[in-house]
Amino acid sequence: MTTTRAWMRNCNTSGDFVVPALPCDPGAGTPPYWRTVGTMELPPSLQRRIDLFRETGNVYHVPTELFAENSWIQVMTGQGIVPKRHHPLADVMGEAELARFMREIREGVDATVRQLPAHMDYLRGYCPGERPQALPA
User: How does DSSP assign 105-129, residue by residue?
Assistant: First the structure.
């Protein structure tokens, strides 16, 4: 696949990723643009993902997509979409095995985080420059 085709495919699936992050339940005071966005019809591919997550707690990753499963879970839960049931694998594991599994995930995340720079150090390295002056009150 050419680079342009790969880029286009990512753009198409990125739209599905971005749409649920937009306001879904516009409240009073929401500007007209966001009211329209919040009530628009979802693309069928996104609606299938939302329905699957809502019913089963499952998400999936297509190899050509930019976003992984954990990103989809964050977007779905961030929009208040709560699965009706948990993943069936949780029922297969005993309590001790599930606790070990979750501990190993936590330890893996902790190990990765320890290797990362502090947020401000990252920003200084990524986009160095003069510190902005405070605005007058």
Answer: HHHHHHHHHHHSPPHHHHHHHHS--
Interacting residues of 25 by C-beta distance below 8 A, sequence separation 6+: 38
Pick the closest to residue 74 from 18, 7, 114 (CA basis). Answer: 18
CA nearest to 52, candidates 21, 11, 20, 29: 20
Query: Taking the mean position of all CA atoms in its chain, how far away is CA 130?
Result: 32
- The two three-digit tokens of residue 63, written as one number: 């190899």
Task: Give yes or no for a contact between 17 and 50, defined as CB atoms under 8 angstroms apart.
Answer: no
Q: pLDDT per residue over 24-49, tens digit each?
A: 555 667 778 777 777 778 888 888 99
Closest of 100, 50, 38, 98 to residue 75, by C-alpha: 50
What are the backbone dihedrals phi and psi of residue 76, each rounded to the nearest 5 degrees, phi first? -65, -50
**Using one digit for the tens of pLDDT, what is the confidence trace for 34-88?**
777 777 788 888 889 999 999 999 999 888 888 889 899 998 898 889 999 987 7
Angstrom CA distances, 65 to 8, 12, 60, 61, stand at 11, 9, 10, 7
Domain ranges across the chain:
1-86, 88-129
